[in-house]
Design a protein that fits this description.
With about 280 residues, the protein is an all-alpha fold. Helix content is about 75%, strand content about 0%. Helix 2 packs antiparallel against helix 3, helix 4 runs parallel beside helix 6 and helix 7 packs antiparallel against helix 8. The chain is globular.
Length: about 280
Amino acid sequence: MTAPLSAWGLPSAVPLWEALFLTVLSYGVGVLGGIVGLALGTMRLPFLLLLGMPPPVAAGTNILVSTLGAATGSLRHLRERRVDLRVVAVQGIPAVLGAFVGGFGSGVAPEALLIALAGVLVVWQGVELLLRARRERPREHPVASRAEPARAAGPRWSRGRIVAEAVVGFAIGLLGGAVGLILGSVRLPALITILGIDPRVAAGSNLVIGFLMGGFGWVGHVVKGQVDYPLLVLMALTGMVGTYQGARLTGTLSLRRLLWLMGLVLLVVGILLLWDAARRS
């Protein structure tokens, strides 16, 4: 169990027990991420680093796992009509552009400061969602199946809201590109707060945006050879299955329970970001 994967002819120095642990972890994170509409690479990355993987390789492998998991989760949300393509366009396109610019500008500002800023925002938004969940009426029935998609009021479109969402999307993309994170945990509350859409639709739309951002973000890592491919295959397979199953569970939760879960997940992710910022400083 302590022998590296290279002992089995695979180009990886990761020990077998670590690979098995990360494979199971990726499934669990995938299920949770599929439910709340987040790739949750922030939850996987600390374990990759703590197990001794070089940071560039950990980041490259992690973002690819996130992208593939987001792809399968997005398909499930699309099938169950929990994706608003207008929302994806309004925030997703600026986010991708921001990530592209941020990638070139990385290193201009201290990474620790940027990650700490993201952590504070995520913790704050997690508390906001928990307070909203507390105010939500508990008698609401969950959406049980694809035949009964979320029927909450659509996005509150106005010129001001569209501009605000686009600016937020670009800013989040800029920050994510600079630090190498998709930052769906910052984007999700913005979709709920600014456009006022159903959190279940926000979850589906956010996962699609995360897939688009990750799809652009992994290219540089692949070109630079910063990917552990055997570990990627193991983590991606279980992560994709988990995210797909988690996306199905989104429709079985009441709005109040989903808000509670989103809030708690955001708090954990925010704390992890703050921990990462402290470690880098």
